[in-house]
Amino acid sequence: GAVVSQHPSRVICKSGTSVKIECRSLDFQATTMFWYRQFPKQSLMLMATSNEGSKATYEQGVEKDKFLINHASLTLSTLTVTSAHPEDSSFYICSANYPSSYEQYFGPGTRLTVT
Amino acid sequence: AQSVTQPDIHITVSEGASLELRCNYSYGATPYLFWYVQSPGQGLQLLLKYFSGDTLVQGIKGFEAEFKRSQSSFNLRKPSVHWSDAAEYFCAVGTGGGNKLTFGTGTQLKVEL
After folding, report:
1. What is the pLDDT of residue B41?
2. pLDDT tens-digit readout, B26-50
């Protein structure tokens, strides 16, 4: 149990376009999901906390207008990178908070390349 | 603010040898502590966690970790490493009620056959 999926696993887009990444909890409901960014050979940096039915909470330094987060249901959160630039190229990982638990279950990540 | 330090960026051990990965944290309250493993291009898998109680916690794949409050440490150990253990290991501290994670910079484990 406790499986989190992400789609797509890899995406290449042109500079200036937008790309949407989906994060789904497959076998549990998650009121809270998290979005992380990981640079090559570096740690995960929390970008934002996504709460079902309310606005996301962004970490300091993360542009909320650039990284749009929507948590429309208890099993789905989406991250949209708007007007993507090459510096947005990164590995984006989501996680979902297991109900009544402090445990987070992570998706397999999405490799975004902006050309 | 909370922080996590993993002093070893790379560690190489021989298959069958014992392993200890170091983790030190800084947090003003009782921490929730986690160890995760990440294989190349993959998400993170939870190895073990400490919330309270027994300071020696057992995890999956034969890993264990010991919480030492006096040293602000949560080191990960395994008595005999397997080649499949080669991966990146992240220590994390949970704050904000436990579910907001701050990660260390990771330790890359290489296993020599």
Report:
1. 76
2. 987 778 999 999 988 778 999 999 9
pLDDT tens sequence across A89-102: 999 999 998 888 77
- The mean of the pLDDT values for chain A is 92
- Per the CB < 8 Å rule, is A42 touching B36? no
Asked if the Cβ–Cβ distance from A102 to B49 is below 8 Å, we say yes
Per the CB < 8 A criterion, the answer to whether B87 and B38 are in contact is: yes
Rounded to a whole number, what is the distance in Å from the CA of B64 to chain A's nearest CA?
Answer: 17
Contacts of A43 in chain B (CB under 8 A): 90, 103-106
Give Cβ neighbours of residue A43 (< 8 Å, ≥ 6 apart): B90, B103, B104, B105, B106
Name the DSSP class of A92. Answer: E
**CA A74, CA B66: separation in Å to the nearest integer?**
35
Q: Quick check: A4 and A98 in contact, CB under 8 A?
A: no
